[in-house]
Amino acid sequence: MPANHVELAIVGAGPAGLAAALEAKAAGVDAVVFDENEQPGGQIFRQPPASFRVVDKSRMGRDYTRGRRLLEAVAAADIRIENGVTVWNVAPDHLACYRDDRSWNIKSDAIILATGAYDRPVPLPGWTLPGVFTSGGVQTLLKSQRVLAGRRVLLAGTGPLNLVLANQLAEAGADVVAVLELANPNLFELMPMAMGPWELLFDGIDYVTQLARRKIPLMRGWTLLEARGTDQVEAAVIGRVDRDWRTIKGSERTLDVDTICLGYGLVPSTELSRLIGCAHRYDAQLGGWIPTHDRYRETSIQSVFVAGDGSGVAGSLVAMEEGRLAGLRAAWRLQKIDDSSFHHKAAPILKRLHQLGRFRTVLDGLSAPRPGLFERMTDDTVICRCEEASYGDCRKAVSEGAVSLMELKPSLRAGMGMCQSRICGPTLVEVVARLTGRPQEAIAPFSVRPPVKPIPMSALLNQDAAE
Ligand SMILES: Cc1cc2nc3c(=O)[nH]c(=O)nc-3n(C[C@H](O)[C@H](O)[C@H](O)COP(=O)(O)OP(=O)(O)OC[C@H]3O[C@@H](n4cnc5c(N)ncnc54)[C@H](O)[C@@H]3O)c2cc1C
Fold first, then answer.
1. Per-position b or e across 250-259, b if 16+ CB within 10 A of its CB
2. What CATH homologous superfamily does 377-442 map to?
3. Cα(114)–Cα(322) distance, rounded to whole angstroms?
4. Distance between CA 159 and CA 136 in Å, rounded?
5. Would you kindly state where each structural domain of the chain is located, as residue ranges?
6. Given ligand 1 and candidates 22, 39, 44, which is best to mutate, with the most ligand atoms within 8 Å of its CB?
7. pTM score
């Protein structure tokens, strides 16, 4: 158990949290990073377990190599990372942590929440069949355990993760049948990307070129309509979509597959920023409800900062720059650096964020959910998997007067299961908005209560208090 007071507590050892720690440590801040994973790196730089031996590092891919550089810098700076620690409660001056059946509190003078994001769940007929995964889940299996989720794989959704994953699966020996991409932009819409930054543009071109070299069809303007099978996925019904992502009738086709990866973009993990009491706003392009913050990443609560995908999905390069800015600003708040030193160091980071922002705005615009995305559910499509509440159940509850997620809760128990609304919450915002004719921003998410992730009762009974 680490000491029970730190100057700066950082939640999340992904690109944002690690970059924040590097910057804060360089300014002389006593910073500690907490992460529930056994290894630092977050999603993109996810490491295999320490017990695995990586024989041929070149086969681990470009992200692994980039991640190693960041992890080596963190190791060289002697930054304290507490892995395997779930932060299950938070207040502006302390965190509650859990590891190895123990729970304890840590007081901190400043907090950076760099909690990342998770796959956006999109219910459609057959999505609960074994063999249907989220793309992030399949990638996690592959990256952390070197396990292939299936053999004959279809990827459907939108955004760059499916392109990356299709190549990784093919490289690992899967037969990738196709990548279905909802967005079908014209050249004019893509033009702003030509202004750079170049590394993102080259990454994109590289993913598409690799698919072509492997003869994996990239079907733009197509999507999954239904997963079919008895005990397991056996086929995928796919179809063409219009610009609103509504199905074009008559375009349906069936493909034989044993695995389907659903990758519809990401949803920011905002449990802790909501629990601590930060103000939030709705931004469809950045993934839904996100904490508001000033240009230096400080939230509506002084000395509480946010960085990375948890404050709006924007990718690992943006996450790192936001992390640096938050680390620097936290050092300024803790009076480790003065005004002029802060502004001198922050200026190039802000400039780089501005450049990266141009590219991301185009990508986000192409992949932000459009109306057709949530129209494939039928009355018996399950939305809340923990409590088995269906679209039909939601429709009935709304017709009886429910206009918010909290009003769905008593009748459906939606959001009360193990996932604590991570799966059903983002869909229910869309469904209730659509059924009531109100904008998404008028549909508040479920309220958050500790523990934000499931932890055993024995750990709570075994709790040490901060002094
Ligand atoms: C599943 C998945 C796969 C992805 N794959 C790719 C890819 O292949 N290529 C690509 O370019 N981008 C990928 N992305 C996007 C990319 O990973 C992110 O843009 C980038 O990692 C964001 O960095 P971050 O530091 O904000 O968050 P993350 O890298 O997500 O790190 C957040 C960390 O916070 C930890 N955390 C969250 N809550 C708690 C808590 N309560 N207690 C303790 N720890 C907590 C998490 O365990 C995680 O390690 C992926 C994203 C996801 C979700």
1. eeeeeeebbb
2. BFD-like [2Fe-2S]-binding domain (1.10.10.1100)
3. 9
4. 12
5. 5-118+267-337, 121-264, 377-442
6. 44
7. 0.94
Say if ligand 1 is within 6 A of residue 43 CB.
Answer: yes
Place of tokens 């160091």: 345
Q: Is any ligand 1 atom within 6 A of the Cβ of residue 15?
A: yes
Query: If DSSP codes are grouped into helix, strand and coil, which group holds residue 43?
Result: coil
Nearest residue by C-alpha to atom 13 in ligand 1? 44
Element (H, E) at 109: strand 102-113
Q: Which amino acid is at 193?
A: M
CB 61 within 8 A of CB 168: yes
pLDDT tens sequence across 388-432: 999 999 999 999 999 999 999 888 999 888 888 999 999 999 999
Tell which one of 35, 43, 165, 273 to mutate to probe ligand 1, the residue whose CB is within 8 A of the most ligand atoms.
43
**For residue 280, what is the DSSP state?**
E
Q: How high does pLDDT run on average in the chain?
A: 92
Residue 38 to residues 14, 51, 136, Cα–Cα distance (Å)? 12, 11, 18
Fold of the domain spanning 121-264: FAD/NAD(P)-binding domain (3.50.50)
| Domain 5-118+267-337, classified CATH 3.40.50.720, yes or no | no
> 116 in ligand 1 pocket by Cβ < 6 Å?
yes
Q: What's the pLDDT tens digit per position in 276-326?
A: 999 999 998 888 999 999 999 999 999 999 999 999 999 899 999 999 999
Question: Are 5-118+267-337 and 121-264 the same fold in CATH?
Answer: yes
DSSP state of 142: I
- Give pLDDT, residue 391: 96
